[in-house]
Amino acid sequence: MELQKISSKCLQNSEETAEVVNRRINLLTLHLSPVQDTPVQELELLRCAGKMKAINVSTETLSEYMRGKHRDIQEEVFAYFNSRPELQTPIEISKDEHRELCMKQLVGLVREGGIRPFRYVVDDPAKYFAIAEAVGSVDMSLGIKMGVQYSLWGGSVINLGTKKHRDKYFDGIDNVDYPGCFAMTELHHGSNVQGLQTVATFDPLTDEFIIDTPNDGAIKWWIGNAAVHGKFATVFARLMLPTHDTKGVTDMGVHAFIVPIRDMKTHKTLPGVEIHDCGHKVGLNGVDNGALRFRSVRIPRDNLLNRFGDVSRDGRYTSSLPTISKRFAATLGELVGGRVGLAYSSVGVLKIAVVIATRYSLLRQQFGPPKQPEVSILDYQSQQHKLMPMLASTYAFHFATLHLVEKYSEMKKSHDEELIGDVHALSAGLKAYITSYTAKSLSTCREACGGHGYAAVNRFGSLRNDHDIFQTFEGDNTVLLQQVAGLLLKQYREKFQGGTLTVTWNYLRQSMNSYLAQPNPVTARWESEDHLRNPNFQLDAFRYRTSRLLQSVAIRLQKHSKTLGGFGAWNRCLNHLLTLAESHIESFILEKFIEAVKNCPDENSRAALKLVCDLYALDRIWNDIGTYRNVDYVAPNKAKAIHKLADYLCFQVKNIARELVDAFDLPDYVTRAPIGVQTPSEAYTQYTQNVGF
Fold first, then answer.
1. What is the pTM of this model?
2. CA dist., res. 567 & res. 156, Å (int)
């Protein structure tokens, strides 16, 4: 009996060993003679720099494709300010002068220039954002002030109110007779909007709401247009209805109310309203940020923006949405345009910085071979590595945000729930990712221009200071990335529960299946240039990384939640979640860039964009090569090939860098050429007169 057991065990071990051996033989066979649907690509050395066909780029043709159908309205903005040099912001200007100049710029653009952005906020958002990009490139403070007036104050009236509000306020907002504020943020509550403490209590005896600031923490803070120019404010407050029980009132959640804050004729502060100036800021000092406190300020019942919830004369509450959370979500969903605009505008800021730094690097000469002329600093590999991947990213972000604007415009027309969810996720992720990238890049551009980049005339200081807050307002970037990660986890759960995935997340189905399988040992070793520049390889690599991060963080969350609870587990995995969200956004950006390359009708422009797209993709893969190597998605020799090709693409993009930056087609007074590349007298004239080439 004992011998029989031993014999049986030996047989079992022998079978297991045979299975392992067979699996190993099959793996080795794949290395020698892989089975695949497409022919195996020959391994080859990267081509040397002299063998790639030169690309003749037409700046005009590429610019036409880049800027699209709203180029004309942007040209009108630039032409207006070019014709009014006194409205161009000087280098040295005080806070108070800057605020008044910003108001003159906005009023002049609307009334004298005949450009009416508010008319496009709902009917043609893409056109509105094109105007905002152009205006912001003239002066970022002006861009933000315009956004406060039309996107925030005006947008809240149009999107959260009903016909009676549009009829009453539209014209005054449009022609800037009714300058207004968007009073959401409080001293103690920024990102957590549901925690706002300002209250609006309905008084059935007078048919009014009473707006109150219950404590110092509830003071409305950082409110644009409040300190000097605003006459109205959209105030977000908790709607309190009187009841006949022991509670006395019922909290119906956060709602929006139109509250007059200054007299229309005298401009004096109205009774019960206290306004304080937030003072000098790090940047955007042309915007008059202030603090608002309300002491029993009475407003008519009609001033409730009642699209999602209304109060009748007798104090009854009605809404088409059954819960506070649904009403809150619907309210914030209508305000997502602010994030869309910030992502789009941030790309505009990045364009300006890249144009200035690249042009400077092409013109500035330092050192060179013995007894030979000095060479352009962009000929140095280190300078190429600073600026060319950044230039590639600028193009990538441009096409990604164009798609976001198109989706937002479609959402405003269709009100499709699935599309609303997609736009919410994309706007949160792109705003967070792009503004963070731009903030870092502004410092890199300044450093790339050496000491001359430190001169105020060259704009890096003002661009960096003005843009810095983009990472915070309209949603803190860390908070927004967590929202994206949460949505990814939700889609992950739905996939494994058999649910359908929305459009933005469709790639997860195929990519997650790929991740659950082992990396292909053959493709992990392909290192030909054709393979590495294949968009399928690039996009698969991006999506593989996202899928790997998604599954691993889901497992970690499940593990830690058993001991730490949901909140503790989320906090334990927070950095992992942020990396996941960034990886997903990078995958989306690359996907849209690849589509833009394919859709470009001009052959030479398409070749240039393909080169730039390949640099964007391979530079990102190389920057996270450890992730791919850890799981053998990329073999060592392939990793070296990726690095070598990314270096080579940097060099090739450098060769057409002037055409690429010129295609952004920004006016000279926006991208002032850095001093240090002209004769001393020319530099002095430029510095003192504040004009560029």
1. 0.85
2. 33
Task: Kindly report, residue by residue over 475-534, the tens digit of the pLDDT.
Answer: 899 999 999 999 999 888 876 655 454 555 555 655 566 655 666 666 778 888 999 999
Amino acid letter for position 621: I
Instruction: Give 3-state DSSP helix, strand, coil % of the chain, rounded to 5.
Output: 65, 10, 30
Model pLDDT, residue 25? 47
Q: Is 568 marked within a binding site?
A: no
How many Å apart are CA 152 and CA 142, to the nearest integer? 14
Show the tokens assigned to 373: 């002329």
Was 172 annotated as part of a binding site? no
Beta bridge partners, 327, equal: none
Question: Rounded to 5 degrees, what angle do the CA atoms 224, 229, 232 make?
Answer: 75
Beta carbons within 10 angstroms of residue 278's beta carbon: 16
d(CA 470, CA 435): 6
CB 604 within 8 A of CB 56: yes
Annotated catalytic residue, options 133, 208, 334, 474: 474
CA pseudo-torsion sign 559, 433, 584, 506: positive
For residues 116 and 113, give the distance between their C-alpha atoms in angstroms, rounded to a whole number.
9
Is 474 an active-site residue? Answer: yes
pLDDT in tens, 337-361: 889 999 999 999 999 999 999 999 9
Residues 6+ apart with CB under 8 A from 229: 99, 103, 179, 288
The residue type of 507 is Y
Q: How far is CA 402 from the centre of its chain?
A: 11
